[in-house]
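Annotated sample (chain length 267).
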Amino acid sequence: MGILPAVERRKCMVRVRRADGRAPVRERSEEGRAAMAYELVIGNFNTSSWSLRSWVLMHQFGFAFDEVFVRLTDAQNRYVEGRAAEVGRHSPSGTVPVLRIDGAPVWDTLAIAETLAERHADLDMWPSVPQARAHARAVSAEMHAGFTPLRAEHPMDISHYRPVNAVSDAVASNIRRIVALWGECRSRFAGDGEFLFGAFSIADSMYAPVVSRFATYGIDPRAYGGDEKTLAYMQAVWAVPAMVAFRERAVAEIGAQRADAFPDWIA
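Output written by the structure step:
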């Protein structure tokens, strides 16, 4: 018999403070009553890249939420018996993450991000300038729908360093496109900021697992058209407090004392 899915619930009161220093986001109705409660259903910290995107986004922007963790694989990355049924209890699509708002589900990472941005426009989760905002949406959608070879051949394993000697032609093409995309965003819209559009945004949360993959598999973007600015962007994402907290949870999940040592150009 396989290992039954472990389901854990915890309140996330956000170890990461909002950039503006204000308290965690707790949405309220127009009448001032405590309103919509947020519950985020996620999968494994070490391997669920889509869960990372929503979890890091909500932490980095200071949302308070209840976390429901469903273990999809064990420490040896073997699928857990009953995982599909357990996820199906929370998600109409049978996938994670899912954001439940007063019990009503919003599934799909990009839909979750758009919903939060719409409900909390004051947080500027997308860039405030219309041209930059449109570009950020486009590159986020490209990540959401594309780069299948990179995602399939180099799955997320955020706690480990497993460098590869070479990548397939299809993956190399993906990497070159991502590196070029990052460079264009930063040169056109970042100004003096560290991230794709200056301040941390939804777009950065969408590409955070790519930064993780490059680190895990020792993929140096300088071999694919990148430069020191590319490395600086990756280092900024890697050091985001919510990313650091996510990696700590991943290490604890696999029962390790610490993550593997990563190359100097990312650590």
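Annotation: The radius of gyration is 18 Å.
Annotation: The CA atoms of residues 139 and 203 lie 7 Å apart.
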